[in-house]
Amino acid sequence: MSCDSPGLIVVEDEHCIVVEPEAEILVVTLSDQGPPGPPGAPGPAGGAAVQRLAGETLSALRVVYELDGQVFLLSSTDADHIDLLLGLALTAAAPGTATNIQLIGAVEDAAWSWTPGPIWLGTNGALTQTPPASGFDVRLGAAVSATRVILNIEEPVWLD
């Protein structure tokens, strides 16, 4: 038997025993750190949030439910999905794109003009200060100023 390996040590009983030398790593020069990578997308401001894919076109600041890893607008009359309520979409999103969903905590928007007090789920994901007369009563939290809401989502209560 012929063994043509440069690291061959022994040929014994028609077996080649090869020992390969360990590679020695040597740092020759030090260099400066490279440039930083691009910044990531801004996250939500406080509270707890998750990122999900939009299952339909979403407007920002609408209540959504989650099904199969995607989020959809939720209405207070949607008995089929009310128990899947996830939170408040912070950004608009096209179907298949990511959006941040606030689960709890403070959310601010300069375009809001709330009166301090309770906030409920309305239709098509809208926030409202008018409690629903039918469907589900879902208190989402409270406005603490004209432009700030504290999310603290409560369990849905069936009204009919």
Characterise this structure.
The chain is mostly beta strands and 160 residues long. The protein has a domain at 48-158: Virus Head Decoration Protein, Chain: A. Helix content is 0%, strand content 41%. The protein has strands at 8-12, 15-18, 48-54, 62-67, 70-73, 85-89, 98-108, 117-121, 127-128, 136-137, 139-145, 148-152, 157-158. Strand 6 and strand 7 (98-108) form a beta hairpin. The model has no long low-confidence stretch (mean pLDDT 88).
pLDDT average, as an integer?
88
SS elements, strand count: 13
Distance between the termini: 89 Å
Helix content: under 10%
Q: What overall form do the CA principal axes indicate? A: elongated
CATH architect. name of the domain at 48-158: Beta Barrel
CATH topology of the domain at 48-158: Virus Head Decoration Protein, Chain: A
User: Strand order of the main beta sheet, please?
Assistant: 3-5-4-6-7
What's the topology here?
Elements: E1 8-12, E2 15-18, E3 48-54, E4 62-67, E5 70-73, E6 85-89, E7 98-108, E8 117-121, E9 127-128, E10 136-137, E11 139-145, E12 148-152, E13 157-158
Parallel strand pairs: 3-5
Antiparallel strand pairs: 1-2, 3-7, 4-5, 4-6, 6-7, 7-12, 8-9, 8-11, 10-13, 11-12
